[in-house]
Write a sequence for this structure.
């Protein structure tokens, strides 16, 4: 039964027509996938259903009646809940408080903390995520934040549940959990709008697919449409090779990590990355991959072990020293750690190279601008110009900026933490080509990714982490999805590091 | 094609304050025949100078997402130090000036150390300095004004018959602030830190060191403002510039900066300071009581920022 319908939606932002006539129908009890390149207008579309933006033209019908969704409150009353691509959690508040945000259980006019806590425990159990409800959200990694967002939306008991790239940062295990929740909701008759750039998920969870291209809805097809066909509809051309890794001869070790540990987080991590190599790091959420990467890069401290970069030992806990030694880190949390959202694209792209571009205190802004223009072109960032505020870029295009600023920097050893989070299939291939170019010119890449096909397709060696420890290493030839997963769920002996 | 749209938009956004200033000037020249004379306008410039110089310094701090409440006190302290070292201790005036500037910078460095290494919130650290610097000014001067050395007092004069030196100093300091903000590493780092401190740190910017530079600049600018003020009055007064920090912050904010950091320009601040000075001058000419002036100025500050916020949200 048709539940929600959007007709002829149009939305203009300064300098760009984001939506140019979009139609969408969603039935109750279906998972409706929105597919489109970065900047195609997916997030803009759903923001009109959630009351964040208002369409310039067109209308939205619920149960066949036109509705005006002016605020998030309106959407909530109509039974529409949304999980945004960029999280809407208050970092300083606890998980429990975030889960009850805006409608905490009350008793005699006061917040009933006991009930709030119970509600949180129940919601967290539903999504199967293992966090203490009292933890401040700022202390969660990006994947756990995502799970909290999902739990928060479930608490609303919506008729229409919108999920904007909920799986972008989740590992296979969490994705499975999410899917089983989604299936249960579907059986209860909830209409689900699901955005993803992982094509294999479409057949697994979806019923129908609406494809957006350049702000228009160009097709509505069943979810079992072959992937090639979906790609063609979305990009307008076929993509012949999804993972075009060109493996070369590995050279000298550039990065050497020995016995790295931080109490309660990770322990005894040792490995090396050689020139010309891409080393992938797989593992479940909470395995400690991001924490290790941050420690190597000097973003956090470590208690034991050492890090050697091209024979040098940068001071622990000093980002600047790590960069001098030739390290770079593309962080997983683009909004919190990667971008200055209020600054423009050129400024963001030039941030890492700012020091090099400075002579006698003065920045060579023209050179910076030129370099930014080149990288933007290379990555195909969809923008109105280099002066566009990064905040107004689509999620995938923001991610390209985070990667781009490190490509400009020419770091000898580049650590990528979820580098292709939210990036469309076409642009992913471009990024893989750039990784190839880096390794071909003797750089080394350490790539953390929750996207298993990507880890398998792009790495020369794969390290698997579980519960704060390195539990295995596989060569590209011997690694399979099942093999990696089997290692990732290893129960490490002794007390759980966490 | 579309990049020009963005340019035009930001041009508008940045010149909202300028538009307000123009409206104000036109309105006042219609309301009072005395307003639009060269003498009066230069007078306005002199009135604006001290606030503007303080505000340029505060712009650095506000761009990094901080706040500096101590600038008024630091200005007074620096002026007292200059007057005391020259008139009482007998140092030659150029040396006394250098010492005075150094004191301003030192106050800024102490602020920054408390903020960057002691992890105090800027509000608290600079509030403490507001008290400390004012107290030291009173201690050194024993509570009474000290005459400024003659050579420095010329700063309060005019070049030729017309051009007041404070106005020249204001414009020069404004130019320096603009160059620092736009063209130097320190300036660009300020925007990055104010926009997202963690992203700045992970991009290799030494955040603590950049904060030292930022607050030191604010202290240095405050010292210059203090010297200009004292030379206009021909004596350094320990109670001078009390409350000026709020005018400085108001000027910065009216000029389009955001107190949450990452936004702000020297030109905007300049316009903000002029708006405050024009408003005070105009209200005086119209013989509005000093009590009502405070009300009007408060309303104008609220309006200016409100309009700016609405316009930004409107996109
Ligand atoms: N607030 C805004 N101001 C200006 N432009 C905007 C704004 N929000 C979105 N846009 C532009 O609208 C277009 C569509 O963006 P949208 O976020 O809907 O893309 P998307 O399909 O969700 O992409 P992604 O897969 O990268 O998340 C982009 O070109 C983007 O830059
Ligand atoms: Mg999006």
């Amino acid at each position: 039964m048709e539940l929600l319908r959007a007709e002829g939606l149009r939305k203009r932002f300064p300098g760009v027509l984001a939506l140019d006539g979009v139609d969408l129908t969603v039935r109750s009890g279906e998972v409706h996938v929105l597919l489109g390149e970065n900047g195609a207008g997916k997030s803009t579309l759903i923001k009109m259903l959630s009351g964040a933006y208002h369409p310039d033209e067109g209308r939205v019908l619920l149960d066949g009646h036109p509705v005006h969704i002016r605020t998030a409150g309106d959407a909530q009353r109509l039974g529409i809940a949304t999980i945004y691509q960029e999280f809407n959690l208050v970092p300083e508040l606890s998980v429990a408080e975030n889960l009850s945000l805006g409608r905490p259980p009350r008793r005699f006019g006061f917040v009933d903390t006991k009930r709030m806590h119970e509600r949180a425990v129940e919601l967290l159990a539903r999504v199967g995520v293992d966090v203490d409800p009292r933890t401040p959200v700022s202390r969660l990694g990006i994947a756990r934040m995502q799970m909290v967002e999902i739990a928060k939306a479930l608490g609303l008991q919506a008729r229409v549940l919108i999920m904007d790239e909920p799986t972008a940062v989740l590992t296979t295990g969490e994705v499975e959990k999410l899917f089983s929740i989604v299936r249960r909701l579907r059986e209860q008759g909830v209409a689900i709008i699901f955005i993803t750039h992982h094509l294999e998920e479409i057949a697994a969870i979806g019923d129908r697919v609406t494809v957006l291209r350049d702000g228009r809805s160009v097709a509505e097809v069943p979810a079992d449409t072959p992937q090639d066909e979906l790609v063609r509809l979305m990009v307008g051309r076929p993509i012949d090779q999804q993972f075009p890794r060109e493996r070369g001869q590995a050279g000298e070790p550039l990065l050497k990590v020995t016995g790295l540990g931080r109490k309660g987080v990770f322990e005894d991590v040792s490995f090396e990355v050689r020139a010309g190599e891409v080393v992938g790091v797989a593992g479940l959420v909470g395995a400690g991959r991001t924490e290790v990467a941050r420690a190597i890069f000097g973003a956090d401290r470590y208690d034991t072990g050492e890090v050697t970069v091209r024979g040098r030992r940068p001071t622990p806990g000093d980002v600047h020293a790590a960069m001098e030694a030739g390290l770079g880190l593309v962080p997983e949390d683009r909004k919190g750690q990667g971008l200055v959202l209020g600054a423009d694209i050129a400024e963001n792209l030039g941030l890492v190279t700012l020091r090099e571009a400075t002579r006698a205190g003065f920045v060579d802004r023209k050179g910076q601008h030129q370099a930014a223009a080149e990288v933007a072109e290379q990555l195909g960032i969809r923008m109105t110009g280099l002066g566009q505020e990064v905040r107004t870029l689509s999620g995938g295009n923001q991610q390209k900026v985070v990667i781009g600023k490190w490509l400009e920097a020419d770091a000898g050893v580049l650590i990528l933490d979820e580098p292709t989070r939210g990036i469309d299939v076409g642009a992913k291939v471009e990024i893989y080509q750039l990784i190839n170019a880096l390794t071909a010119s003797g750089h080394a890449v350490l790539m953390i990714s929750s996207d298993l096909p990507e880890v398998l397709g792009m790495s020369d060696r794969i390290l698997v982490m579980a519960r704060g420890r390195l539990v295995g290493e596989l060569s590209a030839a011997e690694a399979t999805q099942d093999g990696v997963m089997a290692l990732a769920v290893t129960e490490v002996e002794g007390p759980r590091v966490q | 094609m579309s990049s020009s749209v963005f340019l035009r938009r930001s041009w508008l956004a940045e010149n909202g304050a300028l538009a307000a200033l123009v409206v104000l000037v036109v309105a006042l020249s219609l309301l009072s025949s005395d307003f639009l004379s060269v003498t009066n306008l230069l007078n306005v410039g002199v009135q604006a100078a001290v606030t503007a110089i303080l505000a340029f310094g505060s712009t650095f701090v506000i761009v990094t997402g901080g706040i500096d409440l101590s600038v008024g006190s630091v200005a007074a302290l620096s002026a007292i130090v200059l007057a005391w070292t020259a008139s009482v201790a007998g140092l030659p005036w150029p040396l006394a000036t250098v010492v005075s500037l150094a004191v301003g910078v030192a106050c800024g460095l102490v602020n920054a150390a408390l903020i960057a290494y002691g992890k105090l919130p800027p509000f608290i650290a600079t509030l403490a300095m507001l008290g400390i610097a004012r107290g030291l000014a009173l201690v050194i001067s024993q509570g009474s004004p000290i005459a400024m050395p003659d050579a420095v007092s010329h700063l309060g004069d005019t070049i030729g018959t017309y051009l007041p030196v404070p106005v020249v100093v204001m414009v020069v300091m404004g130019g320096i602030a603009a160059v620092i903000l736009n063209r130097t590493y320190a300036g660009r780092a300020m925007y990055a830190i104010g926009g997202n401190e963690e992203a700045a740190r992970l991009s290799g910017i030494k955040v603590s060191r950049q904060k030292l530079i930022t607050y030191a600049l604010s202290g240095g600018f405050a010292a210059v403002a203090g010297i200009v003020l004292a030379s206009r009055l021909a004596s350094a007064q320990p109670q001078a510039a009390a409350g000026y920090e709020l005018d400085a912050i108001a000027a910065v904010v009216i000029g389009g900066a955001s107190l949450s950091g990452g936004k702000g320009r020297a030109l905007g601040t300049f316009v903000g300071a002029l708006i405050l000075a024009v408003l005070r001058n105009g209200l005086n000419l119209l013989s509005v009581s000093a009590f009502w002036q405070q009300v009007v100025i408060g309303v104008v500050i609220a309006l200016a920022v409100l309009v700016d916020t609405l316009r930004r949200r409107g996109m």
Notes: The CA atoms of residues 129 and 144 of chain A lie 7 Å apart. Confidence is low (pLDDT under 50) at residues 494-498 of chain A. The two ends of chain A are 47 Å apart (CA to CA).
